[in-house]
Write a structure and sequence with these properties.
Oligomer: single chain
CATH topology of the largest domain: Thrombin, subunit H
Low-confidence stretches: 128-134
Helix content: under 10%
Shape: globular
Number of domains: 3
Mean pLDDT: 86
Strand order of the largest sheet: 1-2-3-6-5-4
Number of helices: 3
Number of strands: 20
């Protein structure tokens, strides 16, 4: 399931992007979505390890059958040092969320092939109106963008903005979709929406980029997962080994030590 994200501080709400639920209490988003919220509310790009911010990030879902909105608080954020990826730990914020089990995307770590069909999902041009002493009312623009994989960059595309494993598609990614899902023809999550360059001429295609997912499992986490108590810091690979997330291609991940701590590679 893809959920929109809002950042809030003292009643000031700001739509910041999308996230993808991949396991119980676990979602993925683009790292730059988190960095943007910290720039906006904390006046710094990167939160320090263990830092508590003065703003809140919320994921939400409108449930038409209940005419109500389920909301989840982002309890913790763990960011990849190697890619545009972050893991969000979600906690139900209201009764509707406690009673709702979001559909979790299964993950495929294997890179797509050039020519494969993909579909992107995210929320763009979001608007929100906060009603004091009442309910939150949200107006959403859910976007579905089909496309074809045009390039695959197993290590990086460049040494600048796209210096991480990613692939390019001609699916148009609109502003606000960052952190949303890119799925393959079998419905498995293969990438997260990162950035897009619109065509400069009518005959040109979109050049949209999605982060490959395997670097996410090199993220170090410290928050116990509900029903999966883990002591201290642990690698996100534990989420696979303990069955929190459903992943294909895990056997291609290798863990190795560096002076900055453990890292993962993909073979």
């Amino acid at each position: 399931m893809v959920l929109p994200l809002l950042a809030e501080q003292s009643g000031d709400y700001q739509p910041i992007g999308s996230c993808v639920v991949v396991g119980g209490g676990i979602a993925l988003t683009a790292k730059h979505v988190v960095e943007a919220s910290w720039r906006c509310f904390e006046y710094t790009r990167n939160p320090r390890v263990g830092q508590i911010g003065s703003h809140y990030i919320t994921a939400f879902q409108y449930l038409e059958e209940h005419d109500a909105t389920a909301t989840w608080s982002v309890r913790c954020i763990d960011m990849s040092p190697d890619s545009d990826l972050a893991i969000l730990t979600l906690t139900p914020q209201n009764n509707i969320a406690h009673q709702t089990t979001p559909t979790c995307f299964p993950i495929d770590l294997n890179p797509p092939n050039v020519g494969d069909s993909v579909t992107a999902f995210g929320y763009a041009e979001q608007a929100t109106r906060f009603v004091q002493h009442g309910n939150d009312e949200y107006e959403l623009a859910a976007i579905t963008a089909p496309g074809v994989v045009r390039q695959v960059h197993a290590i990086r595309r460049d040494n600048g903005i796209l210096n991480f494993p990613c692939f390019m598609t001609d699916a148009p990614f609109d502003h606000g979709m960052s952190g949303g899902a890119v799925v393959n023809s079998t419905g498995r999550l293969i990438g997260l929406i990162s950035t897009s360059l619109p065509p400069s001429k009518p005959e040109e295609e979109h050049a949209s980029y999605a982060a490959l997912l395997w670097p996410a499992f090199g993220i170090r986490m410290g928050v116990p997962i509900e029903g999966k108590e883990l002591g201290g810091m642990y690698m996100a690979t534990e989420l696979i080994e303990r069955g929190v997330v459903n992943v294909l291609g895990y056997e291609r991940i290798s863990t190795f030590e560096t002076t900055e701590g453990p890292r993962v590679s993909f073979k």
